[in-house]
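Hey L., structure's done. Input below.
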Amino acid sequence: MGPLLAGGSIAILSGDLDNDRLAAALHRHEVTVLFIATSRFDACAEAIPATLADLRVLLPVGPRPEMASFHAVLDRQTEVDIRHCYGASAALACALAHRVRRAHDTRQYG
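Output:
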């Protein structure tokens, strides 16, 4: 609802989208903010990290993503604001959000 109230639009992507189709849809609809399940984020970070790096805000939602996924996107020298979100019924509301920046060590996230 927030994007609509601020004059933006929402692109709801459905169906069986492989990573390449997802990347094409994000570009076609000029998506700047992506709310995505952590499992899908992990797969996309490996397959289409440049597409994720082009976003303004990236919101992986759910259980802990792989640290390598964050690195795959952030290593592209991007300005994307990644905020890992988690909370009860994370798809509806996030109780917690943590900004993720490039780490200088290899400790596990979590």
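The mean pLDDT is 83. Residues 67 and 109 are 6 Å apart (CA to CA).

-- N.
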